[in-house]
Every structure is written in structure tokens, then in C-alpha cells.
Design brief:
By secondary structure, the chain is an all-beta fold. It has one helix and twelve strands; from the N terminus they run H-E-E-E-E-E-E-E-E-E-E-E-E. The protein has a single domain (21-171), classed as Galactose-binding lectin (Jelly Rolls).
Length: 176
């Protein structure tokens, strides 16, 4: 599985749910430090940013209710990497209502998450996205071995550098 260059936000515009944009989902619980930025915005909404100078940084949130996912679903996460302080890796951890977690990560030339448990079940999504521009990270569930799941939350993990996170979208055939 990799970042899809053929599928874009315009391709899913008719069937998506904005899960996170400018604020935490209503009724959600947050962990870690959420730094909101009103200067570097994404689609006119404030973003959340994190810096991980020489370490791993993480922040997460879980909603009070879940969103159904199936093999036709996608999660689109927008990210902007600081061109003057490029991270060595980024990771998204999805929390499911079943208490399962699905982890997706992007790395540079060096292994960025070596200190994390080497036995975690994670999907390598490819090389780090371009810095200095907003990039869509598309997680397409047709490639996962999950018939149905209930999405509950997300964790944003950064190794070194700095990143800004824009909106999180969920695309599903069942969303109208």
C-alpha cells in the first residue's frame, strides 16, 4: 500500500465525512499536547502542529462515537512538513472501537521508529512526503484485511522535525 497519486480529495468530495478540522471532534477525549496554529492553516481552518527535536512526539484523540469503515473506505490525512526541519518519520495510529489499532508510517532514508516495539503491526506506506507543501496521505482500506471496522480515533506520531496536520477525512461508500 502506498500514497495514492491518482486518487485526490476531488475524487472523494461527494462521499466524505470531515472527522477532524480546526477543532477536536465534539465530545472527544485528547491525549498529549495539542498545539493549534492559526497562521499556517489548511483550507482556512487552523491546524495542529508538533515538534519532536531529537525524539518522538505524539498526540491523539478519540471520539465519543465511532464511524463505520469497510473495504471501500479511505482515510485522508493532510500534512505539511517543515522544509527547514524535516521529520525523519511520521506515523498515524488508528484506534478502532474493538480496541484494535492499525498503524501506518512513512520514513526517510533512515529507520525513524527503531525505538518503538519492533513487533508492532504496522503498514509501511513509503518514503516521506514532500516538505513545504500540503500533502494528502491516503489510506485505502481495500488493501487491508478488514471487512468492517468502527473508527474511533487517531494518534499523530512524529520522529524528529516539525509537522502541521490539516483536516482528517473519512471516505466510505456508506456515507451520503
Amino acid at each position: 500500500m502506498s500514497i495514492s497519486v491518482e486518487q485526490t480529495y476531488a475524487d472523494i468530495e461527494g462521499s466524505y465525512t470531515v472527522w477532524l478540522e480546526g477543532n477536536l471532534p465534539k465530545g472527544s477525549t485528547a491525549k498529549g499536547k495539542w498545539d493549534w496554529d492559526e497562521i499556517l492553516t489548511h483550507d482556512a481552518a487552523r491546524t495542529h502542529t508538533q515538534s519532536a527535536a531529537g525524539q518522538i512526539s505524539r498526540h491523539s484523540c478519540k471520539a465519543s462515537s465511532s464511524t463505520a469503515l469497510d473495504k471501500g473506505s479511505s482515510i485522508v490525512q493532510y500534512v505539511y512538513l517543515d522544509p527547514k526541519n524535516i521529520p525523519s518519520g511520521i506515523m498515524l495510529k488508528l484506534f478502532l472501537a474493538s480496541d484494535e489499532e492499525i498503524i501506518f508510517y512513512w520514513e526517510g532514508y533512515e529507520e525513524a521508529f527503531a525505538e518503538l516495539d519492533e513487533y508492532i503491526n504496522a503498514w509501511y506506506m513509503g518514503f516521506m512526503p514532500d516538505a513545504g507543501i500540503w500533502v494528502e496521505l491516503i489510506i485505502d482500506f481495500k488493501d487491508l484485511d478488514i471487512a468492517k471496522a468502527e473508527f474511533l480515533g487517531i494518534e499523530f506520531i512524529l520522529s524528529d522535525g516539525r509537522a502541521w496536520w490539516g483536516k482528517t477525512l473519512i471516505s466510505s461508500p456508506s456515507v451520503n
